[in-house]
Amino acid sequence: MTFNTVRLDYRIIYKIIEPGSRVLDLGCGSGDLIYFLAKEKNAKVQGIELSEEAIYRCVEKGLSVFHSDIDSGLIEYPDKCFDYVILNQSMQEVKKVDFVISEALRVGKKVIVGFPNFAYWSARFRLFLKGKAPVTVSLPYRWYNTPNLHFLSTSDFKDFCRTKNIKVLDAYYLGKKGLIRFWPNLFALNVVFVITQPAGTNI
Amino acid sequence: MEEKKTKENSIGVVETKYFTFAQPPNELLLDGGHKLGPITLAYETYGELNQDKTNAILICHALSGDAHAAGYHQGDKEPGWWDSMIGPGKAFDTTKYFVVCSNCLGGCKGSTGPSSINPINSKPYALDFPILTIGDMVDAQRHLIDHLGIKKLLSVVGGSMGGMQVLQWVASYPDRVKCAIPIATAAKHSPQQIAFDEVGRQAVMADPDWHKGDYYGHSQPEKGLAVARMIGHITYMSDQSMEEKFSRRLKEKNYSFKFTSDFEVEGYLRYRGDNFVKRFDANSYLYITKAMDYFDLSGDKLIPIGKKIETRFLVIAFQSDWLYPLYQSQDIVRQLKIRHADATYCEIKSTYGHDAFLLEIAEETHLIKHFLDKTFLGYNVKRI
């Protein structure tokens, strides 16, 4: 597996994380991302995942994972015990988004949030002109089988951070093949935010 | 075909061995303050200990188990109690690992227990046998592991009471366990678990044949022990597994309108109870359940505050297990996380209830095989 064949969002996250960081991946799936970070960035990794099948895949890779939902919080972790907490493509599937993000910000010095952008141009097109719920590359599901509970755009997330007093350190806008520079809320399929909140300023 | 495959993967004929230690005046000091010795432990080993002695796995059995975990005793048709997990190519691969299983202290399958002869009066101990704890059982095992020349175990593994011993090993000898696999267990017995044990004990003690434990040489309190076992079996299954296994099926065509066992489930429980009394000592049942009830490594008792632990954990629980519910395994995992121990936790989907740890072989094998291999051969990823 060469670097360029790795998923674009993984490559972005790889670049964000400093070597040797302590990383917690919330909703780590089969562990591909943290395995990649552990092998290539010497990161010390841990995952939390809800799917039993995915847990098996993680154990095959030698990863340490916990079979649990992330909605119940991270009470056993002390404040700021991770350099990074990752919520990549899992935030939109949790029930209590603000609680999960506040917990991630509490235990992680920085939090990486990746999610599909609902305001992508073709999503707008489908909704506005066809009058149908959006189906895009990053939002491939139909209304009746989507695991997503929350639909948001890059602008929505920025608003959220502003109202919750969360500092946005970086934002990466992902297109089909690379990063998007112009009008990201219209042209980004996925977004990766790096956010932080100093200890003691809970949302 | 199926049988051939089983035989091929079997470790074949095995023998139980015995190790005696704690000869007076060097008796084992027990948690209850008593001294006990000499002590014999029955044990079996499978596979070969490597030159560095780094491939040893200790298997800890549950309440009614014994040292015969795998393979066949000469002339037996049934293999050991965890044969599906131990053998060439299995979860505990005997071509790679040296597997040890011993009958617990207080047991009745070759290890010193209440049915053993008390050297003081040359009679069975009966109730003169001191009350034990899980910690005492593990201390006795530690003498066996010393005797085998093993400084550090690659893994300590066990389900139910075996899982308690796994946790106790980590609490007592953290530097001697490279990885720990507690399955379907708890860091402490809950009031519900204590209650079921107490009902079982009361059933034994209410049997007139019990004679305050002094029944050796006569028949043992079979009725009481069978009832205790029947209660046990109900708690090992789930509502769904009982529905699937028995439903309301009758043994005969119609109701008998008598107090005989009409339903298949009644016949099953009676059969299980009657079989159990043939192979298990009633007093051992009392002592071992008491040890389980005393078990409490909750909170910081498992890993003391400030202690850094190198042991890796794989904690396994089963979704329909209501005797050792998921929250108890989650409590163990929570303690491990708080203490920054390297841990993996999996809840296996199963309808078998507590019995699942003896039945969900494919899932357990998958997890354990990879976990052991990565621990034994070294990891290629860093963990927290």
Compute the separation of the termini of chain B in Å.
46 Å
Q: Spans of chain B of 5+ residues with little confidence (pLDDT < 50)?
A: 1-5
Largest sheet of chain B: 8 strands, mixed
Pair of chains with the largest interface and how many residues each contributes: A-B, 29 and 27 residues
> Architecture of chain A in CATH?
3-Layer(aba) Sandwich
Q: What is the CATH third-level topology name of chain A?
A: Rossmann fold
Indicate how many domains the architecture of chain A comprises. Answer: 1
Oligomer class: heterodimer
Shape of chain A: globular
The CATH superfamily of the largest domain in chain B is Alpha/Beta hydrolase fold, catalytic domain
Radius of gyration of chain B: 21 Å
The CATH class designation of chain A is: Alpha Beta
Q: Give helix and strand order of chain B, one letter per element, not per position.
A: HEEEEEEEEEEHEHEHHHHHEHEHHE
Number of strands of chain B: 15
Strand order of the biggest β-sheet of chain B: 1-4-8-5-11-12-13-14
- Class by helix and strand content of chain B? alpha/beta
The count of strands of chain A amounts to 7
- Could you name the CATH topology of the largest domain in chain B? Rossmann fold
| β-sheet strand percentage of chain B | 15-25%
